Amino acid sequence: MTQNLLEVRNLTTGFHTERGFVKATDRVSLAIQEGQTLCIVGESGSGKSVTSLAIMRLIDYAGGFIESGEVLFKGDNLAAKKQTDMMRIRGSKMSMIFQDPMSALNPVFSVGDQIAETLRIHKHMSDKAAWNKAVEMLRLVGIPSPEIRARQYPHEMSGGMCQRVVIAMALACDPELLIADEPTTALDVTVQAQILDLLAKLKRELNTSILLITHDMGVAAEIADRIAVMYAGAIVEEGAVDEVFEQPRHPYTIGLLRSIPGIEGERGGELYTIKGSIPSINELPSGCRFHPRCPHVMERCLREEPPLMADERGHRAACWLDEVPKEGA
Amino acid sequence: MTEYLIRRTLQSILVMLLITVVTFILIHAAPGGPKQIYLSPNLSPEAAERQAANLGLDRPLPVQYFDWLGDLLRGDLGYTFKNNLPVGDLIWPTVGNTMILMGAAWLLSLIIAIPWGIYNSTREYGFSDQTASFIAYVGFAMPSFWFGIILQELFALKWDLLPLSDMWSMGKEGDIGDLLMHMVLPVSVLTLGFLAGYVKYARSSMLEVLDQDYIRTARAKGLGERRVVFRHALRNALIPVITVLGLDLPILVAGAALTENVFNWPGMGRMFVQMATQREYSVLMATTILIAFFVIIGNLIADILYAVVDPRVKLGRKGGASA
Amino acid sequence: MSDTAAPVTVKGVKRAVSERPPGLWKTGWKKFSRNPFAMAGLVIVTLFVLSAVGARWIAPYDPAQIDMMFPNLPAGSEGHLLGTDELGRDIFSRLIYSSQISLLVGFSVAIVAVVIGTFIGAVSGYFGGWVDTIFMRFVDVMNAIPLLFLNILILTIFGSKFWYMILILGFTGWMGVARLVRGTFLQLREMQYVEAARAIGVSDWGIIIRHLLRNASAPIIVNATLMVGGAILSESALSYLGLGVQPPDTSWGLMLSNSREFMLVDPIQAVYPGLCILIVVLSVNFIGDGLRDALDPRKKAFKPRKGLGK
């Protein structure tokens, strides 16, 4: 078994608010091996973005903090690091791209300048060398006539172009891990596919590991090696992409899969919906956090919280149903 | 960019013309009409008639307006009742004096306010932030002339540290050290007035920028906090501050006028009030128009600066909003 | 300040909407009454208003009564709480009577300016087009002239009468309200319920008054409150320069102008009127800020910090 590039152990994060501490993630554990792509899937409010910000330690700037748990990056615990040390890691060994590319770029600097800045900071390149490399990066992410584009400002570009720039910026220093937080959500459908293809291609060429955050099972299916499903701040199922798609074990995952148009509901007419809505993590129900919305709820689910239980292939799920002998699933 | 500048300049000229129209209407709406305003009250009725005809006050209004406007454009601002002096000779010497006072206070307050506002934005609700907020509340609620009087009573009369008023001591005209001593109190009064607002603007503008996605991107790139704040946030934060600086100009000029009166500073404000008590209408109108002109030029400069700092303006997308 | 701690929460933490939300004014008052600064401001302004209204009974002397036997008495003198001025007039009584003028000017100017500003802003925002262009250019013009100078010019031309001053300050102070109302109307007129009202044949003015103005009332009130302080300051400045309130009437600004001539003899005289202005304006501004925080519906919900959740 190859070594884990990133391993998150029991990560609990939260925010200080007027009403005291508010939890955002609850004992999240996950791992990414070198060259792998892990997708975290979940509805908005499930804590998936907070998880990614916590890994980058950007959560500190957003008013939140890591309460407990470890973030091991190549065996190094990032959760215990000082921000000054994190600065050397962010952008060089591990970088991030965001949901809304138009607002993720600084409006007053040219895009070439913004890419070159990363190189100047981390690789200590000269202005000229950094600029040339920035143009190279723009070419790599498929921007036509990059020499001209590099001198343009973000507002002169389309959303898809901006996202390519952000990707170029993130990959400029050859990071080992790329965290992509909903990188396609704000884009047009056709552009979404292009950006996903680009990510897949770059991953192959540069051997970068990717942690992709998405609410879209379709996106996950396209690009992921493994999938982690988050619900109300916790991971409820995690496993290799084929297993999660073909033999989902958690009722929430099953619901998510059935609510994708075109996979199961294509001819069925009405689209499947999961009844109810995601609860606030501070107002969690007793026992299993999913039980009020679960179609298979049992008496035990109200009392006891199911732990993540792995099968022999490392496919984990937090559901008591697994213990019940299944009949034809 | 060029297109934007041309449009803004044309807009400014239009506003300027409208100001002359408003002023002109004001004179003609006055009780007694323009005759009361242009003619010395000491003239005999016949002489008044004759002079009114001389000045063309019996002609149709539009003709009079364009005549008057032409005179203005040629720099002919009219003559005073008393001694029949050219109005320009009265106004121009005061302009520089006001500029010295306002410029010094304005620069000083910016130099203090912008770093202070930035500092406060990174430490919201800290001691320094609360202090600034306290100063802002007091600064907005306190009559500046009262503050001036109190400073005079303390520093000039009670402790005798600084001169009470005027621009120079007798016989020391041209002595820079003497001028600076005279400037300390009025500049302090004005600076406090400007400072209150600017710290607030700088702080809130910075806070808004620090909340933007591109700041998160900058941090995700691994930039140090200093670089994030000074390179990535500052320039964006200054953009709205520049606009406010331009829009605030009329308030600043008014503040300077009051302070000039308290400290007997030979600037436009003091001259204006003196002329008001002597009912020298030509001087008052010319000064009002001149100050409006300065304000419009100031706004134009602020807009040009805005365009220089913000690349988005160059496409002209943002320019249309009324100044 | 109860709402100073930055509220931070995770987006998506939705509150259960169980009961019917209480009205804007009711929740507004609840928030307002919990703001100590705003409440202190309200108490102080109320005290000043009461003393202004009851000046006749509260003030121990006629403010214009000259007593050359006892000029420039220090504070705490027998029978004169704050002493007397250079003509032997009782300073405490003069302060109380001055508050009449200052408060009357403050509130009247705010009302005049709000009426004008609301009308122009409403017409501009609702009808748009060339009406809007003309009004907004006019606002530009008014904004480019330093108002103190314009006020002095107009007062010199028309004469320094008390009612003139109120009208002039009102006529030169409406631009902020006009902009605000216009902005709100521009947003609101695109709303569905305006379309609906128009579709069932409600007249333009009916829509403006019944539907739009009601929705714009909260920001207008906040703005009006903040304008009271500005008007009091303007009045004091004009009176200080000798162009506002004329003797034998009295106002704080006039008292300051008076005290200046005797600052060598009796410097403390300058302190009281200025302090009164400072305290009243500060209180009014606290009320205004309190109202803004209380009536701003956006502040009711916790503002999630950008970049979280989702």
Automatic annotation (TrEMBL), chain A:
It is a peripheral membrane protein. It is found in: Cell membrane. Residues 6-257 form the ABC transporter domain. CDD domains: ABC_NikE_OppD_transporters. InterPro entries: AAA+_ATPase, ABC_Ni/Peptide_Import, ABC_transporter-like_ATP-bd, ABC_transporter-like_CS, Oligopep_ABC_C, P-loop_NTPase. The keyword ATP-binding applies. GO terms for molecular function: ATP binding; ATP hydrolysis activity. This is Peptide/nickel transport system ATP-binding protein. It comes from Paenibacillus phyllosphaerae. The lineage of its organism: Bacteria, Bacillati, Bacillota, Bacilli, Bacillales.
From TrEMBL, chain B:
Pfam families: BPD_transp_1, BPD_transp_1_N. SUPFAM superfamilies: MetI-like. The keyword Transferase does not apply. It is found in: Cell membrane. The chain crosses the membrane at residues 12-30, 90-114, 134-159, 179-199, 237-263, 283-309. It is a multi-pass membrane protein. GO terms for biological process: transmembrane transport. Keywords: Cell membrane, Membrane, Transmembrane, Transmembrane helix, Transport. GO terms for cellular component: plasma membrane. Coiled coil: none annotated. Residues 95-302 form the ABC transmembrane type-1 domain. PANTHER family: DIPEPTIDE TRANSPORT SYSTEM PERMEASE PROTEIN DPPB-RELATED. Belongs to the binding-protein-dependent transport system permease family. This is Peptide/nickel transport system permease protein.
Automatic annotation (TrEMBL), chain C:
Keywords: Cell membrane, Membrane, Transmembrane, Transmembrane helix, Transport. The chain crosses the membrane at residues 37-59, 101-127, 134-156, 162-181, 220-243, 270-291. Its main location: membrane. Residues 99-288 form the ABC transmembrane type-1 domain. It is found in: Cell membrane. It is a multi-pass membrane protein. One of its GO terms (biological process) is transmembrane transport. CDD domains: TM_PBP2. It comes from Paenibacillus phyllosphaerae. Belongs to the binding-protein-dependent transport system permease family. GO terms for cellular component: plasma membrane. Pfam families: BPD_transp_1, OppC_N. This is Peptide/nickel transport system permease protein. PANTHER family: D,D-DIPEPTIDE TRANSPORT SYSTEM PERMEASE PROTEIN DDPC-RELATED, OLIGOPEPTIDE TRANSPORT SYSTEM PERMEASE PROTEIN APPC.
